[in-house]
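S.,

As promised, the 2-acetamido-2-deoxy-beta-D-glucopyranose run. Input:
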Amino acid sequence: MHLGMRATAVLWLLGAANFAVAAPTSSYTNTTIPPSTHIPTPTAYTPSSAVFRTACAQVSASYASALASYSSVAATNTSAVAPTSVPVRPRELWDCLYSIPINVDLSIEFVKQVSKYLKFQSTIAYLAKPPEGSLQDPVDILGSLETLAKKVASGEIAHHIIFEYTIIKLLQRAHDGHLGLRFNSGALADWQGPFPLVSVSVDGVAKPKVYVQSDVRRLGTDAPYVTRIDGYEVQAWLAEWADFGSSQSPDARYNSVFARYDPPSDGSFYNLYTWYPGKNSISITFSNSSTYEYDFKAFATWTPAMNWTGINDGTDFYKKIVVNPNFFNETATTAVAAKRWEQPTPAPAVERVVEKLRKRANATTTSTLAPTSTGEPEKETPLVLYNAPFMKHRVGPYVQDLNQIFGGYFLNDTLQTAVIDISSFAAEDEEAAKQAEGFRAAVTAFFDEVRRRKSQKVIIDVRGNGGGLVDLGFELYKQLFPAAPAKSYYRIRAHGASQIYATASEKIATDENVEQLIQYAYSDGKNSTLSTEEVTTVFTELSRGFSRQNVLDVKGNKLKNLDSWIGGVLSPRVNDSVSAVVQTNLDLEFDSEISGFGLLKNFTETPQPFQIPDILLLSDGTCASTCTIFAELLKREQPGISTIVVGGRPNNAPSAHVGGTHGSRILYFSNLLDATNNVLATIPPDSVEKQRLYDLVLPYKLPLGISIGAINFRDAIRPEDETQTPLQFKLDPADCRLYYTETVFRDSINLWGELAELKWGTKSNFTGCAVGGLQKGQGSSGAVPDDPDAQNISDWVMQGLGGL
Ligand SMILES: *[C@@H]1O[C@H](CO)[C@@H](O)[C@H](O)[C@H]1NC(C)=O
Ligand SMILES: *[C@@H]1O[C@H](CO)[C@@H](O)[C@H](O)[C@H]1NC(C)=O
Ligand SMILES: *[C@@H]1O[C@H](CO)[C@@H](O)[C@H](O)[C@H]1NC(C)=O
Ligand SMILES: *[C@@H]1O[C@H](CO)[C@@H](O)[C@H](O)[C@H]1NC(C)=O
Ligand SMILES: *[C@@H]1O[C@H](CO)[C@@H](O)[C@H](O)[C@H]1NC(C)=O
Ligand SMILES: *[C@@H]1O[C@H](CO)[C@@H](O)[C@H](O)[C@H]1NC(C)=O
Ligand SMILES: *[C@@H]1O[C@H](CO)[C@@H](O)[C@H](O)[C@H]1NC(C)=O
Ligand SMILES: *[C@@H]1O[C@H](CO)[C@@H](O)[C@H](O)[C@H]1NC(C)=O
Ligand SMILES: *[C@@H]1O[C@H](CO)[C@@H](O)[C@H](O)[C@H]1NC(C)=O
Ligand SMILES: *[C@@H]1O[C@H](CO)[C@@H](O)[C@H](O)[C@H]1NC(C)=O
Ligand SMILES: *[C@@H]1O[C@H](CO)[C@@H](O)[C@H](O)[C@H]1NC(C)=O
Ligand SMILES: *[C@@H]1O[C@H](CO)[C@@H](O)[C@H](O)[C@H]1NC(C)=O
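Predicted complex:
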């Protein structure tokens, strides 16, 4: 599943809070924000060199003493828990990082090398010259990096940590969750705000106010609300703070500032985008006129590979962490326990590929387990569970897959509304087994039950969905619309390096080899001229994303040669060299079987479970990556599906329902480095000129350690769009917008019940969306079937809510 087709927004970059989109319609509020001057940033405070001698030593001592006291307790108490972080003083931790010396030559070399990776970023030319009406500010990434190198050379930037911060901040300005970089220093330091905030409206329609989360829990919306932060009007301050977020929609960025119940997040006011806030405390003024100063928190953190032992000053930090040769190895942090620092696995092992291909021959076998009331597992690990706990919900879903990706509910309302709760398209544990099989089985089981109960309405809840396995997005779409094609169009940059990668792929993934690979897969390994090792090599090549075999032209035909795909055409608006617009070849998708393709081709005969007017897509704007592929399929191929977005800035303006990165595939720096190694092995330079070309354009190892780096590889494009503008810059507002109410923070089931009422129930003529309405696409009668046994939704929503 790491091969190729993963599309996950890079949540780790900014903690759990990121995403955003800008909206192109004129009805959007113009929210261009002046450069940050009010909000805390690392550079708000410049340490004096007097502290350089002591700061790192003190942090290191705190670390050592926490470990020592753990050891002494653990000697007598076997249930003592090992610490994973140690509180330190916020400013002291920054003093230490600030004391890391800069290496001018390596920093300049880093800029040169990292620019080669960043040239794969699909939108790089669009970011420098954003389409009119998109709320993206221009950001010239490559030009800014050149400027940075000059500043390092001239001595204007004289501290390594400022070098790091400048790069991170630069990439963040693209508001693309697939684009980012994390240096090793991020593994050793973390900061935290005083508490999570929430934004809550009294009824979902009135403009929300900002509260301390725990105050709302105790007092509801009667609690004093926040009026000022550090003396600035609260919304002005938050608008600037939210601008650090990685969504393209400003409303999605705004949502990420706040705590969220489902899927859970503390929000960026609390996690501070993992950066030093520039000071030790923050002042908050409440509606009751009280002003308090609250402390920030800071933590020394570590991983199995990197810790604070022996770091007594900035130079130690530099040697042990910044340029430690162990960390030049792009895969060296794979074993790191902290998930967000992990690298994806490199090329797959032979066994894994062979197993995958063999399984393909058996893919038609799906789970036929009967529901059990207790959710007791069967002898073999079942692919699906019935009536078992799911995430934070008070009531478990009717059915879920073994990895808790998909939850299928039936509400206890008069409509038997079905709800699909899908806050990610991948398991929390990336390595979890049977993600696709379990997902397909759970969706199948749920829709079988939908048909049995004659349930007709469905809410699809993608709030917080930052993406995952691309196959799962296609799978859910196909199960919803079995007879419909699933066309997903994209384009990549056709620059020198991607053309060289494609040329190497062409040597290995030849038409003949791919034909034999398919033979191998369909005959369970028995009928192929390729050896197992050769099969693995071809498979790996397909998964890189640079093979012509992966793509079909917009009409669905195979491309005859490389030139017709990646020969390079100029994009209409920005004069960038890009590939042809192509679509994913889903029949050649070996990571997992997708209903309606390959061996499951005849799935198209399955009846469609819901009609378009009976589908409501619910988001909070942070739909990103695979989620946007799914949402785009719904929107483009099935026009008329109603959309609703919750939360956002208190501006009563339309808001995008898909507001995270619209890129349809991420590539990690390690994937690109791997592709470079493949080029050197497959088509080694045979002349001085070629060697020079390779050195100029191919990404090589970076000279400073990073924990992770990624770019957005594929732009989603609508072929009918003459301007071929990446969808990142084309945001569509949801039909209806509501603000968060207090009940949503108690349980999502409350929100679902209210939305079913709003869309199909007794409130279906309700014009009370904060913005827009759900009338569009309303093909259903709105009539509530007569069912005396069913509960009134309003009653039900109000019942049984035992506190927060
Ligand atoms: C947005 O506001 C800025 C500053 O007032 C102005 O320069 C710009 O033209 C406005 N853009 C739009 C699309 O109205
Ligand atoms: C042992 O450690 C556990 C976990 O920290 C703690 O709950 C427990 O009270 C400790 N027992 C003793 C005897 O200190
Ligand atoms: C004002 O509200 C804040 C936040 O709830 C609370 O901590 C504080 O005690 C209140 N002040 C007074 C004077 O009631
Ligand atoms: C800390 O890192 C050092 C190497 O710098 C290693 O030898 C040591 O085992 C690590 N300590 C812990 C507790 O992981
Ligand atoms: C890179 O790291 C991996 C995993 O820790 C290790 O197996 C490999 O030997 C390392 N390679 C180099 C060149 O250090
Ligand atoms: C596929 O099914 C066949 C026949 O049922 C069986 O022999 C084979 O082991 C299965 N392969 C896998 C990978 O499960
Ligand atoms: C619906 O009601 C039944 C019976 O009261 C209960 O077991 C189930 O958990 C309820 N389901 C939901 C989604 O509230
Ligand atoms: C084996 O492969 C060849 C082509 O490679 C094909 O013509 C033939 O039908 C295959 N046989 C079986 C039994 O699948
Ligand atoms: C477009 O880019 C090419 C290659 O960089 C350059 O030669 C040409 O002048 C550019 N055209 C415009 C209109 O900017
Ligand atoms: C698919 O085809 C197989 C074999 O022809 C048949 O047994 C199966 O019922 C079909 N499935 C559907 C969903 O039509
Ligand atoms: C909604 O309005 C239509 C037309 O005014 C009316 O026929 C229908 O009964 C109303 N539905 C509900 C649930 O009130
Ligand atoms: C549902 O219950 C609410 C509150 O008790 C009541 O106002 C409403 O009329 C009821 N609706 C129906 C359709 O019975």
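The mean pLDDT is 83. The pocket of 2-acetamido-2-deoxy-beta-D-glucopyranose (ligand 7) is lined by residues 395, 409, 411-412, 749 (CB under 6 Å).

- D.
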